[in-house]
Amino acid sequence: MITRSELESLVSWVRSASRKVRVYFTGYRYILTIGRYVEATDASGRTVPWATAFGSKAPHDVLSSFKVERVLLEEEGSTRTFNSVEELLKYAGIR
After folding, report:
1. Which among 1, 21, 39, 60 counts the fewest CB atoms within 10 Å?
2. Phi and psi dihedrals of 33, rounded to 5?
3. Beta strand 78-82 with 38-41: parallel, antiparallel or unpaired?
């Protein structure tokens, strides 16, 4: 479970060094992407309306209620994979 304040810290951390985070959900076609903005994208990387992808859920609710398949972090030209958002939060020093 991720809190709103943890998500805000994660967004700040991502923005601080031009990182990009993509959260893939098990059995779900949309991806939660954190870069300059928190947005919903499809498999090809195109932005889709948040309401289409996740309805009225807030981003921290999406991360808490959907089963995470994997999390990809792009930073400094490399990609790192995590099995959960909690692992990413530990890597970022937020937890």
Report:
1. 1
2. -115, 130
3. unpaired
